[in-house]
Specification:
Blueprint lengths: L2 H14 L3 H10 L5 E6 L15 E7 L3 H5 L2 H6 L3 E5 L13 E7 L8 H11 E12 L5 H17 L9 H7 L2 E10 L9 E9 L1
Parallel strand pairs: 1-2, 1-4, 2-3, 4-5
Antiparallel strand pairs: 5-7, 6-7
Length: 206
């Protein structure tokens, strides 16, 4: 891991993930989590303040970056929910099949190298009666914006921790064996259009 990835990128991501439009989106989806929760891409713990402690039994926090886990210390200290870190990548989740009542993934599917393998693992560990809750940015519906997304992604992912701004989030989720139960979309205010098209909602096993 180079100097940029170890020292600069975690600070940039922590700042970006604290932006008001993104925080507002987190408030919409995180309170839906219940039971035993697997959070993919825990990062610096930006979702923690929005969990309902009366509904959530425990959180498995998957976050391979030590630097990002360290930045979550204050939020973890303020949360009453039991939390256990998983430091393996999401393509290899070390949980038994049907362990999680909820799989929560926010602003993470864009960065996972093998996103289909990761979604397959999420489906494996989620209970038949469980739910996936997602809030992601990705491919825009407007052709002009979409063209810019395809142009920018090769450079953007190098400076943004692997972030692909052009991933077709709903199609990826459905192709991995999930069924969308609800979904909303919009361009987030105050963000560049090429990186600001947001999808959020829920899914069950198909």
């Amino acid at each position: 891991m180079g100097f940029y990835d170890k020292h600069i990128l975690p600070r940039l991501l922590n700042t970006a993930m604290s932006a008001k439009p993104i925080s507002y989106q987190r408030r919409k989806v995180v309170p839906r989590a219940q039971g035993r929760v697997l959070e993919i891409g825990f990062g610096a713990g930006h979702n923690l303040p929005y969990y309902d402690p009366h509904k959530v039994e425990r959180i498995w926090a998957l976050e391979p970056s030590v630097e990002m886990r360290n930045r979550s210390a204050a939020r973890r200290a303020a949360s009453p929910i039991a939390l256990q870190f998983i430091d393996l990548p999401s393509e290899a989740i070390p949980l038994d099949a049907e362990s999680a009542d909820t799989v929560l993934v926010t602003y993470t599917l864009c960065t996972i190298p093998d996103v289909m393998a990761a979604l397959g693992e999420m489906r494996r560990v989620m209970k038949v009666t469980g739910q996936m809750i997602f809030c992601e940015h990705g491919e825009a519906p407007d052709e002009g914006v979409k063209r810019w997304q395809h142009r920018i992604t090769p450079v953007w992912k190098k400076i943004g921790g692997g972030c692909h701004v052009n991933r077709p989030i709903p199609r990826l989720i459905e192709n991995a064996g999930f069924k969308l139960t609800d979904m909303q979309t919009m361009y987030l205010p105050g963000t560049p259009r090429f990186a600001g098209y947001n999808y959020w909602g829920g899914a069950t096993k198909a």
